Amino acid sequence: MKKISLFIVTALLSFSAMSQGKKSFTLDDLLPGGSTFQQLQPENMYTAWWGNTLVETAIDGCNEINLSDGSKKVLFTLEQLNQWLGAEKDAPAVRSGFNLTFPDAGQPWVAAVISGKATSDDRRTRIYTVTDFKTGTKVWEQEYPADASAIDRSPVSKNMAFIRLNNLYVTTANGENMAVSTDGCHDLVYGEAVHRNEFGIMKGTFWSPDGQQLAFYRMDQSMVADYPQVDITTRIATLCPDKYPMAGEKMHKVTVGIFTPATGKTVWLQTGDPTDRYFTNITWAPDNRKIYMIELNRDQNHAELVRYDAATGSKDGVIYEEKHPKYVEPQHGLLFLPWDSSKFIYQSQRDGYNHLYLFDLKTKTYPETRNTANGGTCREFVKVTPLTSGEWVVKNVIGFNEKEKTLLYCSNEIHPLQSNIYKVRAKDGKRSLLDNGEGVHYGNPNADGSRLIDRYSSPTVTRSIGILDTKNGKSCNLLTAGDPWKEYNVPEISSGSIKAADGVTDLYYRMVKPVDFDPAKKYPTVVYVYGGPHAHNVEASRNYYARGWEIYMAQKGYLLFILDNRGSEHRGLAFENVTFRHLGEEEMRDQMEGVKYLKSLPYVDADRMGVHGWSFGGFMATNLMLTYPDVFKVGVAGGPVIDWQYYEVMYGERYMDRPQDNPEGYKGSNLLLKAGNLKGRLQIIIGYNDPVCVPQHSLSFLRACIDAGTHPDFFTYPGQGHNMMGKDRIHLHEHITQYFEDYLK
Questions:
Q1: Which residues in 475-538 belong to E strands, given as ranges?
Q2: Three-state DSSP class for residue 357
């Protein structure tokens, strides 16, 4: 295995001497939602696998790509497809090849969604249309309400599930419409993602492999308090409450049903009392007869992998359990080996880093208890074999190469800032690097895993797309994008490392220096921070993952510094859970090590230092302003958590426990108690209808500052949620920039 030593790389993307006569960026150029943003993005290519055939989904149609040399031939044009669908002038039509999918890898079919007619009760519909592009004829179509959401189609049975008005429906391949539920309402919802999308939950319906059974979530949230969101667009403002279970309060109750369209009946999994429990990572067995689910207690420190009988809902037994004194956090469902349905892949951090474990259902064992990392334990009820190990993280599983019997995945084994594509042999754990060993890669395999699309960038590669042979690692290049910013004044962007506050752990940073940087000058400096779980700010991709606003600020003469502190992702369990029960403390200590490094640089003006962050970063920015009031002169905190008692049960209690069980931790992280410390200028910005960090956080902070005699500034975006979208995003960053211009520069 090739090993690359720790690197500190500097990407010199522009030089002062070369900047003469070059263009300056606008926020519209640099931010999503900007009118010119797409024009300044690297050249791209949109692809999809149709079985083992690679197809380019272009704006004006689809092309087949030769896997050997990357050459293309036209499969059909968008104009042809609309002719086959019978679309005439001003009639519903397919507008872009990007919207096309391939519903059956074994057929020359393409699918699209188009607008339908109005029904008798004046409801609009949509039509899912499948067309044979070799014959130019429609194969079949399904009609469903235009206001349906969470569309979930089985590619095998062609049955379709969707949600409408909190109820779950199924439309069969032959057009029969079936109501799975009829009592859905604000308090009772069916088929939606539950537990506020924690534990890797992104959807609420799960078709069996043959598409003949549908597992789904039912969430009773009648016991959860309504948070009073308000719609101000009505003549008299209207109450639009969210169900928001705050830490330490009652949480919703979830059950799991299995609906069979052939019988119209639902069977419920016999999980027992769902009070204060989480159900996640639902996975069907390949034989369609069993269903697996990971179950956690409310403390989230005990997880069980449980198997159920799909026909009766009865509990078939516990396969595996894992405990940890802090928390266990399952994020991924099971992956059964395509060549052996008695074995599956399970992901766990039990040995300190997220790795892959092979479970063998045929090899029964007596329960065997093992000690795991950081004081945890696990019990295995079947044979479990580690497939990967080491002080690095498996970031995601891509798929399988069925012929080689290997698993394809991405990890940061080479370096914490990278993501590279590997394969590992299921029989013995032998692994091989498949890509070029640089940058950040994303892989998408074909049906049998013999090829994959490899998309990557690095500090020196804007974007590269190629076809990777997973047997030998050979690559066929499809696209190497040029630099879309070559005519612009681009700042110098570099990356390096410092030690954390523990004096041992490496932390990685990105620095964006002002355009036309002069080391003899002193520059105002802004620390941009997030710092929370499941996120990172620095990686070895294009521009070291720099945000457009950083480029804009560098253009205005600021130095930007971004550090991933302990508590952020992809560095292992101990790195992440060091913040347990005391959010904000270790994170700030690490950020202050970054400040210490900045102060050592002759070109950083320590008297003009600011901080900015959003969400968890808003919490961090506010906390830094209040805890180190003599260090930071100006801060902008967006959508901040102020008091963790106001945050949701699932996320909040994982990292802080319940307020009644950890009063000192909640007190230490409560920024209301620090409101009197404010000295500099602090701007709080929120979406008026934020359902994530609800407005109570910021409004309570304003009240605390008034009571303490301090004077923060406040700005809100009516109608927006946790993040500003569209043109409001441009306005937001204009507002943030102006605040630093007014008070820091």
A1: 475-480, 493-499, 506-512, 523-529
A2: strand
Diameter over CA atoms, the chain = 78
Task: Please give the structure tokens belonging to residue 443.
Answer: 């892989």
Say if residue 741 is exposed, middle or buried (CB neighbours under 10 Å; 0-12, 13-18, 19+): middle
Q: For 56-95, write each residue's pLDDT tens digit.
A: 999 999 999 999 999 999 999 999 999 998 877 677 889 8
**Closest by alpha carbon to 542, among 474, 616, 490, 613?**
490
Rg (CA), the chain: 27
Nearest partner of 46 among 81, 84, 94, 96, judged by Cα: 96
Q: What percent of the chain has pLDDT over 70?
A: 96
Query: Which residue, chain included where needed, has tokens 């429906």?
Result: 169
Alpha carbon distances (Å) from 23 to 18, 485, 488, 555: 12, 9, 4, 11
Distance CA 42, CA 29 (A): 12
Structure tokens of 141? Answer: 């179509």
Q: Which residues are catalytic?
A: 615, 690, 722
Q: Could you give the angle at the alpha carbon of 481 between the alpha carbons of 475 and 485, nearest 5°? A: 155
pTM score of the predicted model: 0.95
Sequence-ordered list of residues with C-beta below 8 angstroms from that of 703, at least 6 positions apart, any chain: none
CA distances from 739 to 139, 231, 713 (A): 58, 28, 10
566-577 pLDDT per residue, tens: 999 999 999 999
Euclidean distance between the first and final Cα of the chain, in Å?
49
CA 422, CA 411: separation in Å to the nearest integer?
7
